[in-house]
Amino acid sequence: MGRVAGKVAFITGAARGQGRSHALRLAEEGADIIAVDYCTDFETIGYKMATPEDLEETKNYVEKTGQRCVIAQADVRDAAALKTALDAGVAELGKLDIVVAQAGIAGMKGQPPLQAWTDVINTNLVGTMNAVHVALPHLSEGAAIVATASAAALMDAHNKPNPGGDPGGMAYMTSKRMISQFMHDLATELSPRGIRANVIHPTNCNTDMLQSEPMYRSFRPDLEHPELKDAQPAFYVQQAMKVPWVEPVDISNAVLWLVSEEARYVTGMQLRVDAGGYLKWYDYHV
Q: Which key words are in the record (predicted)?
């Protein structure tokens, strides 16, 4: 028996990266998957989004584990579309036990700048709220929700040498901070119902978002067109451990634990999977 055997998990942003990794890891441990992704590029975002073919590939990977997988293209910013996708998945798979609100974008140097702010906030924050809210009617005692925030949400951002210089980049930090607060309050309200809600804060994670020119430029602003070889040495500044990034499966293992019975009394947690990044910025405090 797997650690989430017999469960059904709803995962947004599941076509690639962390979302695909979560789908596969939960399937390996016995869960059926409802996998949703937008699969459409944003004009304001400087790297490509996943494709419909990527989403189909996620389905294939899940089904190779012997588990079922229902997929749908839906924009997390659109609550009605997301509800339609989820309801169809629940109708086919019979129930819902796990929610992993993973979908997110990074808008560093996005153009036009204020539209980049809007797209990031609406995708990361409103999209997370939409995923949770359309799922709530399906959840009962024993269910678990996990939202992906970021180590960026925990960083001290009081020093802003260039206010207004990168609204899309700032929106990423803002959205992740607000996800953290939303989930904290949600966990409080759901606790008496026996439904748990937690947040994971990854550091640099080896996905298409990290491995993109806009991200390279955010670490090497001194270069016009930096490449991986230019940015990778700078990636180490984020972590206390001597690694430039963690892998998606490192986050998936944390997701698996949080939604399993092993964490049945863990709720309201802000769980850092950051290779010690937080330790570089803050002293111990309760």
A: NAD, Oxidoreductase
The whole-angstrom separation of Cα 56 and Cα 71 is: 8
Is-contact 26 255, C-beta < 8 A?
yes
Coil, helix or strand at residue 256: helix
| Angstrom distance (rounded) from CA 167 to CA 205 | 22
Catalytic residue among 38, 47, 61, 172: 172
């040495």: which residue's tokens? 233
The one-letter amino acid at 88: A
Cα–Cα distance between 65 and 132 in angstroms, integer? 26
| Residue 272 phi, psi dihedral angles, 5° rounding | -90, 125
Residues forming a β-bridge with 146: 100, 198
What sign has the CA pseudo-torsion 277, 258, 38, 183? negative
Helix (H) or strand (E) holding 36: strand 32-37
Using the predicted structure, report yes or no on whether residue 126 has a pLDDT greater than 80: yes
pLDDT at residue 286, rounded to an integer: 64
Is 47 known to be catalytic? no
